[in-house]
Amino acid sequence: MKIQLLLTALLATSLVACQTNPVSGRSQLVLVSEEQAQASSAQAYAQTVNEAQKKGKLSTDAALNARVKRITDRLITQAGTMYPPSRSWKWSVAVIDEPTLNAWCMPGGKMAIYTGIITKLKLTDDEIAQVMGHEISHALLGHGRERMSRAMATQGGLQIGSILAGRDLTVLAPVADIALTLPNSRESESEADRYGIELAARAGYDPHAAISLWEKMSQASGNGPPQFLSTHPAPSNRIQALNALVPKMMPIYEKARN
């Protein structure tokens, strides 16, 4: 009986939670609203930043922080053109002083980039823009909500039932934490590549940097893929796809530079 009730809840939820993303046009199954996703992400982000600060892991390099903010500010401006609702997001970026090769953007524009990916790969501004453009695109494309929905599903039918009952999910910040550790699908990664390179081009960053970035990431994989690459398509396939996009992005980039 419990299994039947759970399956019924899942079916009912799927029928009411299938939405078309306004940026990509892809139909997505999401179990949480944008407002709920942003609220829980904001709590998880605050906790992450607070813990990093307590451990002395927030970067105190003023020049690096200013550099990252300058780049992300330009990307955020163009994000508002690509997805107008993002203009009202409470954007924030943290530079976390850890050696990991990683970066992310939560629903609602809560971002982080780790010093390891910048220093170890010796990233240029254009390459940082590709990293953060990719991550911002995940948020614009609703991929975080999809991951949060998967995280909720792994915790059983209780959360699903609460959705159907209309209960507030803003107290479920741990769901946003779990979502950060879950991989995006290959389809989502390809979408973020496609829109990330365009977002960076619109902000005036060279599309060719997407190629050099993933070449560096591929070389850095060494004995195993870094965290940032662990769930992503093979670098060779990604580079091939991005190479095909560069000619289409160049007019956008040249217009932004003029």
Description:
- It is globular, with a radius of gyration of 19 Å.
- The strands form 2 sheets. The protein has a 3-stranded mixed sheet with strand order 3-5-4, sandwiched between helices. A two-stranded antiparallel ribbon has the order 1-2.
- The protein has helices at residues 2-16, 34-54, 62-82, 115-120, 125-140, 143-154, 157-164, 173-181, 186-202, 208-220, 235-257; strands at 18-20, 27-29, 92-96, 103-105, 110-114.
- It is mainly α.
- The relative contact order is 0.14.
- The N and C termini lie far apart (65 Å).
- Helices cover 62% and strands 7% of the residues.
- The model is unreliable at 1-16 and 167-173 (pLDDT under 50).
- The longest helix is centred in the C-terminal third of the chain and has 23 residues, at 235-257.
- It contains 11 helices and 5 strands.
Quick overview of this protein structure:
By secondary structure, this protein is mostly helical. The protein has helices spanning 2-16, 34-54, 62-82, 115-120, 125-140, 143-154, 157-164, 173-181, 186-202, 208-220, 235-257, and strands at 18-20, 27-29, 92-96, 103-105, 110-114.
Low-confidence stretches: 1-16, 167-173
How can the largest sheet be summarized?
3 strands, mixed
What would you call the shape?
globular
Q: Please give the alpha-carbon distance between the first and last residues.
A: 65 Å
Element string (H = helix, E = strand): HEEHHEEEHHHHHHHH
Provide the residue-averaged pLDDT. Answer: 81
Q: Topology, pairings included?
A:
Elements: H1 2-16, E1 18-20, E2 27-29, H2 34-54, H3 62-82, E3 92-96, E4 103-105, E5 110-114, H4 115-120, H5 125-140, H6 143-154, H7 157-164, H8 173-181, H9 186-202, H10 208-220, H11 235-257
Parallel strand pairs: 3-5
Antiparallel strand pairs: 1-2, 4-5
Helix pairs in contact: 1-7, 2-8, 3-5, 5-9, 5-10, 6-8, 9-11, 10-11
